[in-house]
TrEMBL record:
Pfam families, A to Z: HGTP_anticodon, tRNA-synt_2b, tRNA_edit
Subunit structure: Homodimer.
Comment text on domains: Consists of three domains: the N-terminal catalytic domain, the editing domain and the C-terminal anticodon-binding domain.
Name under which the protein is recorded: Proline--tRNA ligase
Primary localization: cytoplasm
An annotated Gene Ontology molecular function: proline-tRNA ligase activity
Keywords: Aminoacyl-tRNA synthetase, ATP-binding, Cytoplasm, Ligase, Nucleotide-binding, Protein biosynthesis
Species, as recorded: Paenibacillus albilobatus
GO biological process: prolyl-tRNA aminoacylation
EC number: 6.1.1.15
Family, similarity comment: Belongs to the class-II aminoacyl-tRNA synthetase family. ProS type 1 subfamily.
Function according to Swiss-Prot or TrEMBL: Catalyzes the attachment of proline to tRNA(Pro) in a two-step reaction: proline is first activated by ATP to form Pro-AMP and then transferred to the acceptor end of tRNA(Pro). As ProRS can inadvertently accommodate and process non-cognate amino acids such as alanine and cysteine, to avoid such errors it has two additional distinct editing activities against alanine. One activity is designated as 'pretransfer' editing and involves the tRNA(Pro)-independent hydrolysis of activated Ala-AMP.
Residue ranges of domain Aminoacyl-transfer RNA synthetases class-II family profile in the record: 38-468
Any single Gene Ontology cellular-component annotation: cytosol
């Protein structure tokens, strides 16, 4: 492609609201442009990267035995009502009505549609397993779209689904997709980890894995063990539990109320009383399916709502509003404590271990806290369990090594759904014994447009991106320094035509621009291989740079440069 013929507009500076490095680089490099909050147009450069991602995904999904189809983005609301997700999915689900006042939704995912399709098309075990996938636009009305393509309201996704006669078949398909995902992300040049995760709004009856591209801007915390293969999302992470100390509280003084005017946070309480935060108890009031409950954790710990929700078996778990807090505690927000509460109390095991020797908590009275609280003596817990997030210092439950924390971008997720959707939408088949049975489902997603940002985060720098060869919109950038120099123009064009005829994605900067402008734009465009045609063109020499290996440049013959490009591109070493 000749650069002067492309819609390729680079920016010297990114908009101030572009906080993530990938967002800034994709805007400055002319890959995307924002149309509205969380909604982007892909310019030719960005679209080329999308197409390369799609090709990799298609090759690996088809190798795993999946057939491609295309389902509608606009879906009947009644399907979501059948599955129970029309209300459960929450405000992120975009709901509309057509001219006949029939409800429709813009699909954030396609479990309902594909299950109804399977229910209509499959009747016998002879038609199973069924493996389907699509690459299609999805819609989610995010409360706060941010970080460019990392969290948008409209995005491109690969979603796949398997239907089996039994759980063994589901496991085989699940493992096949896990292997395919490893190959996909390796081919994309990403540093990633597969981690145990929660199913979230998709739900299901079995294990689930998230694939995390490691990046500081990631919204998810990845918890890993440096000594064994344990890896989990923070929501799912488990760790060695502290042993509860001995004693029944008899040696601890009786509870004592302390006047703490205006003290509402653990940090303020710790400073006011001169106590360590781990000796304080944090009492959080939630509503579980509309009923208030309390969860108590150590002052230096955070509640893990996913663990709590699973313990309760609740469909909805939400922090209680201020009115509910005051109604159940008798005090405004900031003074809740377990003593005297008449709602179920869920006590984290670390808090229970710490409180054996007495702890401080809210007194359920404005401007008061209470010291020397001991569980079992001063309050009764409904249950004691793991209700907190892992944090620095916690140790692996498998091998005892201290856990490591990093940030990650979720780029893929695989689920064992079981019969969650097949039962709701009537997806049955006749088994070998002539009996009607439920199809066993799995679903598997990849955020295609999100992958672009993940790659840009990992391969970007201050001046631009150095794309992996497999994703680069152009593998090689040929840059004649001066458009007015006949020798440079002739040699640059000859190289361009030679490489293009060999099937290599090559960009020729044939613009009449200053060298500084050309090089700055080239950095932003991010081709991994660069050939600069300068003053030595008359001698048949060019400046060669493999940007994947650093900034080193080499003056070589133009023919040698063409051979190197061909060799690198044919090897696929990206």
């Amino acid at each position: 492609m000749r650069q002067r013929q492309m819609l390729l507009s680079t920016l010297r500076e990114a908009p101030a609201e572009a906080e993530a490095a990938s967002h800034r680089l994709l805007l400055r490099g002319g890959y995307v442009r924002q149309t509205a909050a969380g909604i982007y147009s892909f310019l030719p450069l960005g679209f080329r990267v999308l197409r390369k991602l799609e090709r990799i995904i298609r090759e690996e999904m088809q190798a795993a035995g999946f057939d491609e189809l295309l389902m509608p983005a606009m879906q009947p609301s009644e399907l979501w009502e059948q599955s129970g997700r029309h209300t459960e999915y929450g405000p992120e689900l975009i709901r509309l009505q057509d001219r006949h006042q029939r409800g429709v939704v813009l699909g954030p995912t396609h479990e309902e549609v594909v299950t109804s399709l399977a229910a209509a098309e499959v009747s016998s075990y002879r038609q199973l397993p069924l493996r389907l996938y699509q690459i299609q636009t999805k819609f989610r009305d995010e409360r706060r779209p941010r970080h460019g393509l990392l969290r948008g309201r409209e995005f491109l996704m690969k979603d796949a689904y398997s239907f089996d006669t039994d759980w063994q078949g589901l496991d085989e398909n699940y493992q096949a997709v896990v292997r395919a995902y490893h190959r996909i992300f390796e081919r994309c040049g990403l540093r990633f980890r597969a981690v145990e995760a929660e199913a979230g709004a998709i739900g299901g009856e079995g294990e689930t894995l998230e694939f995390m591209a490691l990046a500081d801007i990631g919204e998810d915390t990845v918890v890993t063990c440096p000594s064994c293969d344990y890896a989990a999302n923070l929501e799912k992470a488990v760790f060695l539990q502290e042993e509860r100390g001995s004693g029944d509280g008899d040696s601890v003084s009786e509870p004592e109320e302390v006047h703490t005017p205006g003290i509402k946070t653990i940090g303020e309480l710790s400073a006011f009383l001169g106590e360590r935060t781990e000796t304080c108890l944090k009492t959080m009031i939630y509503t579980a399916d509309g009923q208030p409950i309390a969860v108590v954790v150590r002052g230096d710990h955070e509640v893990n709502e996913f663990k709590l929700k699973n313990e309760l078996g609740a469909d909805r778990l939400e922090l209680a509003d201020l009115e509910t807090v005051e109604r159940v505690t008798g005090a405004p927000h900031g003074f809740a404590g377990p003593k005297g509460l008449h709602i179920p109390i869920y006590l984290d095991s670390a808090a229970a271990a710490a409180a054996v020797k007495g702890s401080t908590a809210g007194a359920n009275r404005k401007d008061y806290h209470v010291r020397h609280l001991v569980p079992g003596r001063d309050f009764q817990a409904e249950r004691i369990g793991d209700y907190r997030n892992a944090q620095t210092g916690d140790r692996c439950s498998r091998c005892g090594e201290e856990l490591v924390f990093s940030r990650g971008i979720e780029v893929g997720h695989v689920f064992k759904l079981g019969t969650k959707y097949s039962k709701a939408l009537g997806a049955t088949f006749t088994n070998k014994d002539g009996q009607e049975d439920w199809m066993i489902m799995g679903c598997y997603g990849i955020g295609v447009s999100r992958l672009i940002s993940a790659a840009a985060e990992q391969h970007g720098g201050e001046s631009g991106i150095v794309w992996p060869l497999s994703l680069a919109p152009f593998q090689v950038h040929v840059i004649p320094v001066s458009a007015k120099d006949a020798a440079q123009t002739e040699l640059g064009t000859a190289l361009y035509e030679k490489l293009r005829s060999s099937g290599i994605d090559v960009l020729l900067d044939d613009r009449d621009e200053r060298p500084g402008v050309k090089f700055k734009d080239a950095d932003l465009i991010g081709a991994p291989l660069r050939i600069v045609v300068g003053k030595a063109a008359a001698e048949g020499l060019v400046e060669w740079q493999n940007r994947r290996d650093g900034d080193e440049k080499e003056l070589i013959a133009a023919e040698e440069a063409a051979l190197r490009v061909a060799e690198i591109c044919s090897s696929g070493n990206g």
